Amino acid sequence: MEYPESTRPFGRRRCYLNEENLVAIVDRNFKSFSQLEGSQFIASKSSQLNLAELLVSVNPKNILDWGSGIGTLIPIYLRLTEAQVVAYERNSWCRSSFYRNIGCEPRVELCESPPIHRSQNFITIDDKIRICEVKPLIQNSEGDLVIFIEGWRNTTFARISFLILLLRRSAKAVRLSSRLGEFGDNLTLEAAGCYLLIKNSSLKASLSSWCGRTSETQEFLEFLKYLARVTRIYRILGKARLGTRVRSLLGLKTRHREKAWLRMMTEKSNSERK
Ligand SMILES: C[S@@+](CC[C@H](N)C(=O)[O-])C[C@H]1O[C@@H](n2cnc3c(N)ncnc32)[C@H](O)[C@@H]1O
Fold it and tell me: CATH fold of 5-217, please?
């Protein structure tokens, strides 16, 4: 179904932009999408503004929108760039809302399976993504690649940063800040996103750029959290196994079986006596 022209978040015309109207564009987009059904998980205003600024400065030719939801970020891509947009959404309800909200746009292709073998130079991640899905996306990129990560996805940020090291690329990592004040809202914190600017490089450059960005990506902290999670799971599993072992050592299982056998025998002899 087509989204009526008058109610589309933006017209189709691209305008010359400055800082001030980026805020206005994002504000309008956020307001129009937050009124739509299923809008509870849309990208925050701060993330949208940070993304918009990044798009204007990078001017990508190919964009992958991973976790498009109901299509909130699509009008921003269309308005601020000339790029071809590949959108990926795994949820079928969201996909039908996407079609309803965005309509037929020649520059937009919506996929229901992960388009991991495409070549992109700008990727927005706003849903779960596995490292084995990120790897081909980085490997297939020709030249520089920007990965913008929406929301509070610290683990994804840290994992991708480490993967970049393993793939011998260098990258700059930036954690973005909340921009609510610029919309005239009460000053509160909200998810603002972060990004990685990835370049092909030598092993030495890749290693030194990784050392330089670990404080921004908090990779060591994320690794410790991961270890804590894994050891806790093992402890729980260990306790469960230990419990069974202790019970069998104390003969609790046998005693239980013996009791059942005795009960059965008494019932049998009682019935014979009758
Ligand atoms: C944070 S949301 C993505 C939001 C999207 N980038 C946007 O700004 O509209 C992450 C994932 O949650 C799921 N999701 C989002 N909205 C949903 C809804 N209303 N009902 C069910 N799933 C939803 C989709 O699979 C989506 O890819």
Answer: Rossmann fold (3.40.50)
